[in-house]
């Protein structure tokens, strides 16, 4: 057993460094950008013409929050090549496994994180909007200078949880042939016929990764709580 572990562990760690970690980081970064845009559009107070754009973003959030991530991966990687539009997409949309994974995980993260950011923005007291308006600040200036900085600190804990969940969800990327840690463990298990050892080993590696992230989350939460409590302390 120890020989299997010692020979397999380096391969799993390399797969984590080459695919699992980059897939998580890139997807989360792109997802956060998309989440911020989505949240701002959904809370925007514009005319009726803007309602169509808001409806599109609402539909996007509903769609990705209402369907399984595994199904989304299959649609993007296996389904899009069959999206043939004569004269526009004659051969469908063919993506590499890694790019398909990035797109799917980013869209999924963006949908969930947008709700977190939207809730954080709306949790800032309405009086702060009114106070900023009373001194001549526009809605955009108020959002950038007063509301978003507070919302950022409020959203740190749930967003950190989302990132930890994303790291674990990347194991689903094995279903579209991305050679991340779980896929490598499957390949090794097919060779040595020790699935229990291999799957337990990869589970422990995920547990170590997520535990390290949880420590970082705890540190960020302490900093954000200290920041949020400063104004009251100053008063």
From TrEMBL:
Membrane-topology annotation of the record: Multi-pass membrane protein
Positions in coiled-coil regions: none
Keyword terms, alphabetized: Amino-acid transport, Cell membrane, Membrane, Transmembrane, Transmembrane helix, Transport
Classification via CDD domains: TM_PBP2
Record carries keyword Transport: yes
Family recorded in the similarity comment: Belongs to the binding-protein-dependent transport system permease family.
Protein name, UniProt field: Glutamine ABC transporter permease protein
Species for this entry: Ligilactobacillus salitolerans
